[in-house]
Amino acid sequence: MIRATILEEVAGERERQIGKGYRITDDALWTPLDWHEMIADYNAWARRMMVMGSPDKARRRYIQIAALAVAAVEALDFEAALPEEASQ
User: Fold this and answer.
1) 63 near 13, Cβ under 8 Å?
2) Which of 26, 46, 81, 87 has its CA 20 to 30 A from that of 75?
């Protein structure tokens, strides 16, 4: 079972991203490959933090990765909700 506090942290990180100006309409401009690359980059940083003996920093990166995945899903849902002629 997933602890609610972890999901709250992910939601908080997503809100932080939105607060910095990363909006769903802007996120919809990224391609699936863009999302993959961003998530892979953050994963590499998480791995590096673990190797350096900083599990707290790695954990923070994993929360950011989860929030990026949420943003990717939001962007896909946003795109799917557009009328067909608007999404072309």
Assistant:
1) yes
2) 46
Helix (H, G, I), strand (E, B) or coil at 33: helix
- CA distance linking residue 16 with residue 88, whole number of Å: 30
CA atoms within 13 A on the CB side of 48: 7
Question: Residue 36 and residue 42: Cα distance in Å, rounded?
Answer: 10
Confidence band for 85, pLDDT divided at 50, 70 and 90: low
Give the residue with greater pLDDT, 60 vs 22. Answer: 60
Q: Any idea where the domains of the chain sit in the sequence?
A: 4-81
Q: How far is CA 38 from CA 1, 2, 9, in A?
A: 27, 24, 19
Residue with tokens 């863009």: 34
